[in-house]
Amino acid sequence: MIPVCTPFLGRKEKEYVMDCLRTSWISSSGKYLNNFESAFSAYCGVQYGIATTNGTTALHLALTVLGVKEDDEVIMPTFTIASTAFAAIYCGAKPVFVDSQPDTWNIDPEKIEAKITKRTKVIMPVHIYGHPCEMDKIMPIARKYNLNVIEDAAEAHGAEFQGKKVGGIGQVGCFSFYGNKIITCGEGGMVVTNNKKWADRCRRLKNLSFLQSKRFWHLELGFNHRMTNMQAALGLAQFEQIEKLVERRRKNARVYNSLLGGILGITLPVERPNTKSIYWMYAILIEKEFGMTREHLMRKLSEKGIETRTFFIPMHQQPVLKQRGLVDRERFPVAEKISREGLYLPSGSGLKKSEIEYICDSIRKIRKIES
Ligand SMILES: Cc1ncc(COP(=O)(O)O)c(C=O)c1O
Questions:
Q1: For the chain, is the Cβ count within 10 Å smaller at the N or the C terminus?
Q2: Which ligand 1 atom sits closest to the C-alpha of 188?
Q3: Which residues line ligand 1 (CB under 6 A)?
Q4: Claim to verify: residue 187 and residue 296 sit in the same structural domain
Q5: What CATH code is carried by the domain that includes residue 34?
Q6: What DSSP line would sit under 251-309, residue for residue?
Q7: Which domain, by its residues, includes 349?
Q8: Both 299 and 254 in a single domain?
């Protein structure tokens, strides 16, 4: 089976992790943590990085530090993974959903202002599948209403909008280092920001809010969102090859684009001018004109040893949010359409050109025989 994604690990990863084991620095402090936090935050063009257990806890920490609490509202796309919405709910806030753009599949900035109320605290754009959101439209809206922006950049390490790295454009950026991400710690996340006060508070909160001046004394509710030095060792080794890993994803996309272009009924991912997408996942839409459903194509590809995944199911359709009274009957036509039609193809950084050729050739053959 050609998997959708596998981690791309080298010799350095083993060396750094073994160093943690050799020196017993296996828990939540150590040089790899410090080095990973400073290297990754500098890469994003910001001053501070706070490593966490995963991307979901990074979002939770960021929202908490920005003071999001009971009855506040957080604006986000409905087309995202549950982590974005759940993080707001963990804070007692209400996620408020916005439809997507038909080409980038990101939050539609034109539809944000209508969702702002007196309770809105944060706008949380998500750089879906590694394509940057239209930050030049989102940031002015946030400024106009005195809101903070937390970028959910979990899927977009190294992506750029107008020459600036995502995660470093809003007040706070959040990343995931899960196994399928551009760089991985196995599990892991990071909050990045230029605000020292927030960074210091993130550090305290992620460590159960221990007070430094008085041991075992807690002034506020904290969490255990601590990353280990071993995870950071893996992350740092991965980070040292981030440019190569990003370039490999972009190269995959170039090969796919050239081989799938022109097939009726397949919509390819876009890369808008002034953006650099990192094609975390190479994602396509299977439309009516293709002559068969997405599900049928996925089954046939699986028979040929090719793994695929469907797109996210929008948050406004999620039973858990309905049960909690967090969604009404509003429809989000773009998100619903892309969720029905979208799939992603094998996208890992270790994917070979010959494998992409086999995948694209299989898609053409299946279409010819089955449609
Ligand atoms: C957009 C987005 N946000 C947040 C997350 C959460 O990251 P994690 O799985 O590390 O908790 C993910 C993870 O896949 C994601 O894709």
A1: N
A2: 10
A3: 54-56, 80-81, 83-84, 126, 152, 154-155, 176, 178, 189
A4: no
A5: 3.40.640.10
A6: HHHHHHHHHHTT-TTEEPPP--TTEE---SSEEEEE-GGGSS-HHHHHHHHHHTTB--E
A7: 242-370
A8: yes
Segment 292-306 shows an average pLDDT of 98
**DSSP-derived secondary structure letter, 132:** P
What's the CA-to-centroid distance between 214 and ligand 1, angstroms?
A: 35
> For 275-279, what is the mean pLDDT?
98
End residue of a domain, out of 239, 262, 279: 239
Per-residue pLDDT reduced to its tens digit, 59-110:
999 999 999 999 999 999 999 999 999 999 999 999 999 999 999 999 999 9
Alpha carbon nearest to ligand 1 atom 8, residue = 55
For residue 306, list its beta bridge partners: 2
Residue ending a domain, among 216, 239, 262, is 239
pLDDT given for residue 212 in this prediction: 86
Nearest to 173 by CA among 189, 196, 162: 189
pLDDT score for 183: 98
**235 lies in the same domain as 266:** no
Report the atom number in ligand 1 closest to the C-alpha of 87.
4
Question: Can you give the pLDDT at residue 369?
Answer: 87
Question: Do 290 and 152 have their domain in common?
Answer: no
Ligand 1 centroid from CA 124, angstroms:
13
Mutate to test the pocket of ligand 1, among 57, 124, 127, 178 (most ligand atoms within 8 A of CB): 178
DSSP state of 26: -
Q: Is residue 153 part of a domain?
A: yes
Give the integer Cα–Cα distance in Å for 176 and 287.
31
Shared domain check, 265 and 228: no
- Tell me: pLDDT of 370 over 80: no
Q: How many domains does the chain have?
A: 2
With vertex at residue 140, the alpha carbon angle to CA 46 and CA 95, rounded to the nearest 5 degrees, is 85
167 in the same domain as 43: yes
- Binned at pLDDT 50, 70 and 90, residue 126 comes out as very high
Residue 4 domain-assigned (yes or no): no
Phi, psi dihedral angles at 234 (to 5 degrees): -60, -45
Q: What is the mean pLDDT of the chain?
A: 97
Report the SS3 class of residue 91: coil
Predicted pLDDT of residue 243: 98
**CATH code of 292's domain:** 3.90.1150.10
